[in-house]
Amino acid sequence: MNPRVTALPRWLPRRSVALVLTVVLALGSSVALARVLDAGSPTLRSAVEDDAPYFSPQVARRLTAGFGGLAADWYWLATLQYVGRKLEEQAQESPGGARSAVELDRIDAVNPRVLVRLIEMITTLDPRFTAVYEFAAVVLPTVDVDAAVALLERGIEANPDQWYLHQQLAYIYWQRGDYLAAADAFRRGARMTTAAWMARMAERMEQRGDDPQVAQAMYARMYEQAQDPQVKQWALKRLMELRSLQERHAIRSVLSSFVGATGRCPRAWSDVTTGLRAAGLTVDPQGPPIDPSGAPYVLVVSPLGCDVTLHRASTVPRG
Amino acid sequence: MSATPPVPSARRRIVAIARNTFREAVRDRVLYNLVLFVLLLSVGAVFLGAASASQDVKIIVDFGLSATLLFGAVIAIFVGVGLVRKEIEGRTLYVIFAKPVGRGEFLVGKYLGLCVTLAVNVAVMGAGVTLVLLAVARGSAPLVGVLWATVALIYLELTVLTGVALLFSAFSSPIFALFGSLAVFLIGHFTADLKGFAALFDATAARAVLVGLHYALPNLSTFTLITPAAHGIAPTPGYLGTALAYAVAWDAALLAAAALLFARRDFK
To answer: Is the full-model pTM beyond 0.80?
Structure first.
């Protein structure tokens, strides 16, 4: 028997209208109620969101049997959501309230125990999930640098063919100011690849690890190698920040030369256009120099002197 | 001259169908799943509790309530999808419709019958979890109150899910109804994330579509507060009341839509 839909019976229209009205009214009220529930639900859930997995990674690996990869994916999504929530929280507390103002390597709102446990869980369930090590190398050092180092060492051991994990490890040491350990990490990585820059980075790190040029090279390589778009974006922002710092240094030199020659601060950027161009800065036809995010720098003139600062619309990190 | 027997009221007709549906479910051994549940709960309480480093109470609540939801969902979907199909295949539908029973009444009766079956199921499972909890906590389990509030929410979710299964079975084939109901169950637990995803999009249209989907599908995660319950966090009476109203609104919408479609179905 194959049921078919036929034309409406004679008695139906009035009842149909009533039923359609019921559907519309009920769905309408469900939307209104959903809004009320949406507002109440986060309060109930927020109390438990800082909850680390209570199984040890080893127990979880046994329990997931052949589905370790799937479980790792699940925990990876949970980690991203956790970090994302913390970014939002920290952004809301920051003066501008902009999410972009909080950088991946500066989230101090995360609970170290939760984040470390989540990342350990993923890498135990799926030790070849290399994007996780990359993400951890950026996010984890702020909250637990030793855990970050231990994790990367385990990642290198589990992925002997992934030479760029040494670069992530070198980054963690470099951030900590341990340039010799960073150089050693680069050297270990250089043995596994034909990329000559690893060996060059090791030398530069040993000679002068705190050189801004080294920092620039470090972020440029992180940007090139990154698999995770968030990490890529973060490295790009760090590069922008470094470039902007150099540009502001150059602008301050131009400003002090102008003050030295005229005895006063420039009234507008157009007074120093020639000097700015000579310093190799990108200058807008209207006069102001342009920062790496495309926003104009702001000239600050006060009784104390003149200075340069970032525009409100600039997306260059403010440190 | 013999008098014509009086036609029972619509309410009595619906109650009769509901009672019959419940009896049929018992006859079909639907409640046998409770035995499996008790076995699972015992194993879970003993082994998982021991492996979790003194987190046994949390694990029992997590495990017991999750099993209650999953078992209930399986019954709501599989039995709900078969409610209409069985009557058609057994040709009992013709006998029913030969009597003064409306199609809408038939659906509402079937729906209520399954809801009663689920209520018994959920209540027994809740009692099982409570007993294990009391045994593990040696008589003093402060989570019992929270647990029953959460069980009530799970039951509300199951009534919505039954409505979904009934709606699909009112107009489609059993396979489609089964997959459709399963899809709504799965997606319903992620609709809350749709709103979160919407915030990531700059395009207004994409954001509107995602927010629209969030409201167009039943948000089943509203009823699933298992994790907070395991931490002793109870929903407020206001939240419970709103969740009840939300479930009733969805139940009404689903039943009305099912009745609308079922009225146009030809069984010849």
So the answer is: no
